[in-house]
Amino acid sequence: MTLSDDKNWWRTAAVYQIYPRSFADANGDGIGDLNGITSRVDYLAQLGVDAVWLSPFYPSALADGGYDVDDHRDVDPRLGTLADFDRLVAALHGAGIRVIVDIVPNHTGSGHKWFREALASPRGSAARDRYVFLDGLGDDADQPPSDWGAAFGGNVWEPVGDGQFYLHLFAREQPDLNWANREVRDDFLKTLRFWADRGVDGFRVDVAMALAKDLTARPLPSAAELERIGPGPDHPYTDRDEVHEIFREWRAVLDSYDPPRPAVGEVWVDDPARRVLYALSSELGQAFNFDLLRADWSAEAFRAVVARNLQLAAAAGSSSTWVFSNHDVVRAASRLALPAAGGGDASYARDDAWLQSGGLTPAIDPAEGLARARAAALFMLALPGSAYLYQGEELGLPEVVEIPPAARQDPTFHRTGGATIGRDGARVPLPWSEEGPSFGFGSGPAHLPQPDYFQTYAASRQDGVAGSTLELYRAALRLREALRADESLAWVDDADLPGDVLAFSRGNGWRCYSNFGAAPAVLPPGRVLICSDPAGVGAKRELPGNATAWLACG
Ligand code: GLC
Ligand code: CA
Hints:
By secondary structure, the protein is of the alpha/beta class. The longest helix has 17 residues, at about 300-315. The protein is built from 17 helices and 18 strands. The strands form 4 sheets. Strands 9-8-7-3-2-1-11-10 form an 8-stranded parallel sheet. Strands 12-13-14-18-16 form a 5-stranded antiparallel sheet. The protein is about 25% helix and about 15% strand. The protein has 3 domains: about 10-105 and about 180-205 and about 255-475, Glycosidases (TIM Barrel, Alpha-Beta Barrel); about 115-165, Alpha-Beta Complex (Oligo-1,6-glucosidase, domain 2); about 490-550, Immunoglobulin-like (Sandwich), CATH 2.60.40.1180. The mean pLDDT is about 95. A hairpin with a 4-residue loop joins strand 5 and strand 6 (about 165). It binds alpha-D-glucopyranose and calcium ion (CA). Alpha-D-glucopyranose (GLC) binds near residues 64 and 170. The site of calcium ion has 6 residues, from loops.
């Protein structure tokens, strides 16, 4: 296989997210590495994905699983070397798979040479200007400049001992960069070129909406006021208008390559009209929407999400992105078994509460969760746009709830004293085979403990087994090729179908039917191409509950 020469490959790509530390460990130290990924390129090719997105593999103290980057243009020695990276890219390209890397521009790790220099330099110095330092409040300047809460708990301001504080929207080991500083801007342009020159095909941009900041107001607004202000031009750091100047500069660099490099922004902005600005072709090209992963399991909710996002993407001249799972959320095979929450933040609160109860309250039915996750995957893979898959979902992995506190790594767990459980349960190393100390992940134990039941999900156990989740994904990804040429979608409103069934047709005449209810629904005529339920669509043409099928009609 070679890479296609389609410049628009990203518009309809199936992108497989790899969290490198938990994918495959080639040297047996318990940590997944680049050579581990290279050893699994055949698996990725057989799965049939168009691209992989590598979560950060850069030097890092791992205060936030690698999203605390100490050097944006190198490989963490525990994960390999730049030469290993080049070999990985060559192997993936040789298999026809493109490579997307993660750029983390909002902050560095606290071990970055710039941050060490800033700490060693006086207030007002050029070194401090690369970050966001402010004087403390009060007579002794020992009070933080504002009461804002950090994403992983605690205050966003950290004192440095000389009356100044630095800003960290995330963990204390993730100091925010000052994007008004030209040197910061130039350095990231250099980083984009560095990876594009090494053959990287695209970029995922971490917390894209937070780069531009204006903290000049005195006093700074309170946390309560921030809530009222909301994202947008008046917010000190979320979705300010100047952020778009930054991405227009990036686009000039990305367009200097042949083919132009696409980028997808992680944009936590609810107002769709503003989110879409990041996706313009003069900027990143695509923006994640996380609406499906926050949607309740219902035909109505899914239809609304899809309709809205297709319209938005079209308005931006982009294609939509679809996501059910990533390294930050409860795995879909568990999440979709939880009761409806009404979407949005309420669904996160529900997921957090469930994790907090150790996965006990409410009790979920894992079989139902898996059935829905499989149906959701088939639904997503039938949509126009690009589908982002997260390692392990093709095995049907559930969220791991039984990680002992001492083994937990997510900073949010530690910074909240365990009140927020965090994301480790979605980051447990993959089970490749039924045997071995880490089910084939590596030759020794894995850095996060795998539960014994992971054995039943092992890739080797599903390989070639009809009806397995792995074979379902492989078959769907193969069939999906036929859906590429035409990005249109039309809803099928058929009065004969129960209200729990959502159906749409694609440009090539195929139809996708998803049954969100529990009772079987009778399908109209048409050849069944694939069904997410291992029982399939029988002679009575019944689509089981919690299932999706694709039909070739007409
Ligand atoms: C993004 C990443 C998340 C990380 C955070 C801070 O949301 O997906 O994993 O913790 O940014 O970099
Ligand atoms: Ca390793």
